[in-house]
Amino acid sequence: MQIQRIDVMRQSTPLVKPFKTALRTVFQAESVLVRITADDGRVGWGEAPATIVITGDSLESIESAIVHTFTPLLVGKSLLAYEQIIQSVHQAMVGCSSGKAAVDMAVYDLVAQACGVPLYQFLGGYKDRIETDFTVSVNSPKEMGEDAARYVESGFNVLKIKVGKDDIGEDIERIREIRSRVGDRVKIRLDANQGWQVKDAIKSIRRMEDMGLNIELVEQPVKAGDIEGLKAVTDAVETLIMADESVFSPVQALEVLQRRAADLINIKLMKSGGIYKAQIINQIAEEYGVECMVGSMIESRLAVTAAAHFAASKKNITRFDFDAPLMMLHDIVDGGVRYDGRVMTFPDEAGLGIRNVRCQDGMGAVS
Question: Ranges for the Mandelate racemase/muconate lactonizing enzyme C-terminal domain (predicted)?
């Protein structure tokens, strides 16, 4: 089974409500879709969103990398030698982790199809269903409390709260309001998206601990490159600290783990460059006794399906952040992972189980 052709296209889907974090505000989910066709007619799908403020990748740079760098390398290559394919993609250029991830997931989709099994089974098959949290964007305490209560009423029992956009005292008020609205049984995770200074992070997390706000974890409280600062926060508080933007590669994961700079690691395919490297990060973390979460950017159900297959396949991945498709006004994917409230289940079809993707930017259906 050889790669016959690689097609790319763009899609843009409006969100139900603007998604606000310390780093950006998103109104549209925009991404590059990848379709790899094998010589036996099978099709593998991939997706890469443009998240410039985190990955540095734009729609233009992703598209250019796939069309001009990866495609000439891959057409004609045997998919059953997928190690060679993925290694060549990672060695072909520095950066563009999102473009690499899109190609990676399409390749894994095709390989699992050739083996006749769903991708999560091909990768390990540890779970056949997972549960996602739901994210509350940064807004006023009142609006965030109302959003949180609505998500809990919809059946979600884990909330990821975005903070770090402005005054840290305001963040505490946001959390206090949300906790008062949802009660004590709902898990609350905070994601500062690098928005706090080290001393302020320590002070505020300790204050929340003293207030009994019962925060499960705080994700990336300080700047991505400040590993010393991340460690200082981790050492100073009882609340679990999760590294996100600090860990793109296995090498960065190893540094965080060796220095005990975080209690948990958040793996995203768009940071790692796909499933291949994501597996290495998880394996290293598991050897250090550190659990991982798998999350996503603002991606459609295409990319989230790939990430969910990977996440479900591994024992050491214990937390899941896959709510992005639920934030979109339109669902562009036919097939793939299914949502029943917070519960996600997988199709019986081989590979990702994606049958078709429909673009919403005027380009029409892709088949």
Answer: 141-240
Question: How many H helices and E strands in the chain?
Answer: 14, 17
Where do we find the tokens 């985190």?
Answer: 54
Residue position matching structure tokens 């010393």: 228
Q: Residue 304 burial (CB < 10 Å; 0-12/13-18/19+)?
A: buried
Active site residue 268: yes
Active-site pick, 268, 271, 277, 314: 268
Q: Identify the band that residue 360 occupies on the pLDDT scale cut at 50, 70 and 90.
A: low
131 sits in the region (left: phi over 0; alpha: psi -120 to 50; else beta) called beta
d(CA 272, CA 243): 13
- Annotated catalytic, 20? no
pLDDT tens, position by position, 259-273: 999 999 999 999 999
H helical segments located in the chain? 52-55, 59-64, 71-74, 82-92, 97-115, 119-123, 141-153, 168-182, 198-210, 227-236, 250-258, 269-272, 275-287, 301-312
* pLDDT tens per residue, range 5-62: 999 999 999 999 888 887 778 889 999 999 999 999 999 999 999 999 899 999 999 9
